[in-house]
Sequence to fold (348 residues):
Amino acid sequence: VPSLDAAFVKRAALECGFHKVGVARAEPLDPGPLDRFLSRGYQADMAWLGTQREVRLDPAKLLPGARSVVALAVGYAAPGIAAPEASAARVARYARGRDYHAVLKKKLKALRARIAERDPEARTFAGVDLGPIMEKAWAARAGIGWVGKNGCLLTTDLGSWVLLAALVIDRELAPDAPHPERCGSCAACLDACPTGAIPEPGLVDARRCLSYWTIERRGDVPEEIAARLGPWAFGCDDCQTVCPWNLAARERCDPELSPRPEQSALDLDALLRLTEDEYRARFYGTALARARYEGLVRNAALAAAQAGDRRRVPLLRALLESPFDGVRAAARFALRRLDGSAGEGGPH
Ligand code: B12
Ligand code: SF4
Ligand code: SF4
Fold:
């Protein structure tokens, strides 16, 4: 029987399309940072971050007999990724190609098949993003990079322009050394955040983060957040674009994550007119679908408020009839900003 070892798993991971792979022992994680995050309420309404606490911190609770965690990363640094942009309705860079969840899941499936071929008895648990695995912590422990002050996993060559996945396995694989912290005395990201959402280095308060409001959360966006949205219509990269490691990052982008022009700088007028049918045709299969129809149209109204072009007033007035509370509230906010005609959509 051929043995399953770290060298085999790493080779297989690279052959399956991952750009980086490392191995860590499946020992419980330091609960300190997660507990500080939860005790201060930084998880906002993502209650699952708290209810999954035990499994997130201990892979043996996820997969009985867990011995190792294989941390995986795929780059999305397309040419010119950190160049300045003029668009008034920007999409976070990770979301400009095909939905990364689908892209990474496909690679994970191929990797699990390779492992099963070699060691049919091995049991694995794999996840991308929404699984109960602390992907940044494992990537740091497995030597791929470190958790930067901006709360992202940074690598020395690809910066933080990497998306993560992890695979827990009940096999002993030779572990890599954890990556040292390389932020040093830099604090550029803390100052660059438009809402001051990073109160402690490495810990992001979702209640203030534009990424949370524009992607995860539907409904009303508080005015103090809406007023600081800048050009963002989906996600936010401000704490990443200022990072010196990202400015110097090598270009490396999975072909399926390559930016599509129509998905990078959104056409605000088209988005304000978007119907649910058009939404399904245009955005299904992209990461933007996570905001759902009502989230995207709401974000477009907020972006229109920032863009300040009064020619959009009729489109915004039409949105006062939307069946979605968050869309109507955003349209009222934008109209107040653009021509002072607040409240004409009637009560909430
Ligand atoms: C919840 C969540 C969010 C929340 C909270 C953000 C955050 N930084 O935790 C919100 C909605 C705000 C968010 C936003 C974004 N997210 Co997000 N998110 C997640 C998710 C699902 C869980 C993260 C989590 O558990 N956070 C709670 C904190 C406490 O956990 P943690 O940071 O992992 O801390 C543990 C370890 O890091 C460890 N640790 C080890 N070393 C160190 C060092 C320090 C200094 C500290 C403090 C901790 C620490 O301690 C903790 C355990 O106790 C992960 C996917 C996953 N399953 O991990 C994606 C994930 C972190 N997001 C991702 C992305 C791409 C983003 C955005 C960049 C999207 C965008 N452009 O708009 C932004 C970035 C915002 C930011 N500055 O972090 C990627 C990040 C890739 C990368 N290179 O880091 C991930 C890994 C998804 C993926 N599969 O690729 N996200
Ligand atoms: S994603 Fe934007 S809002 Fe969130 S912490 Fe980074 S800079 Fe701040
Ligand atoms: S901007 Fe500076 S402090 Fe922030 S993550 Fe990058 S290197 Fe670290």
